[in-house]
Design brief:
It is found in: Cell membrane. Its main location: membrane. It comes from Streptomyces coelicoflavus. It is a multi-pass membrane protein. The chain is an all-alpha fold. It has a domain of about 180 residues: MetI-like fold, CATH 1.10.3720.10. It contains 14 helices and no strands. α7 runs antiparallel to α10 and α8 crosses α9. The longest helix has about 30 residues. The model has no long low-confidence stretch (mean pLDDT about 85).
Length: about 280
């Protein structure tokens, strides 16, 4: 049954307006990043008159962008790996085994998503400072402390999502592997994990994006040596001037890893977000 022509045209108009709404800020960023600072600071013109790639060169010297890029890559990568590994074991245990407190654990994991992240800022700050004073382990201002902080956000969602995905994987696969002589861990990595790759990829993308663009905790829990990109971009705004063209250029550069990863893993991401909902 064909859709009415009025519905087809309405859909086209709506999608066109939505696409323009999404792409308009991107065009402004790209055009502003290719202008001299004088043109960006003056009246806005849709078509740049003086094109230059100088902002893409100056962004590396105005602030230590390479150092911030490395810090973000280390922190986001480590938080992603830790989140995926821990979530796989925790979700598999909840999905496949019965133990005392299982329901309480599941509800507790889910309930942590009900609180805004800013509520954990002061408690984590005090915990890190007290641990440093008592043991000498410098969590505050370090990459390790920031990684632990990001795990508090990504782990609950990752565990809850993988529980639903592991539930959709037939238990017969585990039992067949056990009958063939595999132990529980070998059955997990040889049978269940390969079948759950889309869900694991979705969790990894979520954890990486959460850590890559986080600002609040990174601005408090880091120092000059461990500052990440999300905070380091503020360095283009000084007391004397704001380098708008460099801010736009740097924002586009730091978005490349996330956009490229999303495009490469889009097929797995969509499958992972939807497969766990249908059993």
């Amino acid at each position: 049954m064909a859709a009415p022509r009025s519905f087809t045209w309405t859909r086209r108009v709506f999608l066109t307006l939505l696409t323009g709404f999404v792409l308009l800020p991107v065009y402004v960023m790209v055009s502003s990043s290719l202008k001299p600072l004088e043109d960006v600071s003056s009246q806005f013109h849709w078509l740049p008159s003086n094109l230059t790639v100088r902002p893409y060169i100056d962004i590396w010297s105005t602030v230590p962008l390479a150092k911030y890029f490395l810090n973000s890559l280390i922190v986001a990568g480590a938080a992603t790996v830790c989140s995926v590994v821990i979530a796989v074991f925790a979700a598999y245990a909840v999905s496949r085994y019965e133990f005392r407190g299982k329901r309480v654990f599941s509800v507790t994991v889910l309930s942590t998503q009900m609180f805004p992240g800013i509520l954990f800022l002061l408690p984590l700050f005090l915990i890190y400072v007290n641990i440093g004073n008592a043991t000498g382990i410098a969590l505050f201002g370090s990459r390790g402390g920031l990684i632990l902080t990001y795990l508090t956000f990504s782990l609950p969602f990752s565990i809850w999502m993988l529980i639903g995905y592991f539930d959709s994987v037939p238990r017969d696969l585990d039992e067949a592997a056990l009958v063939d002589g595999c132990g529980p861990l070998r059955a997990l990595f040889k049978v269940v994990v390969p079948a759950a790759i889309p869900g694991i990829v979705a969790v990894a993308v979520y954890a990486f994006m959460t850590a890559w663009g986080e600002v609040l905790f990174a601005s408090v829990m880091t120092n000059d040596a461990t500052r990440t990109l999300a905070v380091g971009l503020q360095g283009y705004s000084t007391q004397n001037d704001v380098y708008w063209n460099q801010i736009m250029a740097a924002s586009l550069v730091v978005s490349v890893p996330v956009v490229a990863g999303f495009l490469l893993l889009q097929r797995y991401l969509v499958a992972g977000l939807t497969a766990g909902a249908v059993k």
